[in-house]
Amino acid sequence: MLGKEGGFLPQKNVLAEIKRDLDDCVGKKIRLRANRGRKKIVEQVGILEKTYPHIFVVKLDEKKSVVRRVSFSYTDILTETVELSICDDDSGSKCEETIG
Q: What domains sit in the chain, N to C, each tagged with a CATH number?
């Protein structure tokens, strides 16, 4: 990470920008695509429930009686381990705008 004379933005500013983008999407339906390693990619639909200083929480849409929540760090979006898309409809089939 370079200083002011370098060409890079400080990582803290980039992470703060990602958090601001997610703050605007709290309560919206999103499609989550997460790389779990060893060529295993998980895709699920949920609601962005809350953002915290270092993590965000997604409440997953599941047909089970148990509510499932997953949390990720903003660094996961920066490193493209997690990709989020905002959904236009309730089914989660029309997701266009990618966050991050």
A: 11-99 (2.30.30.100)
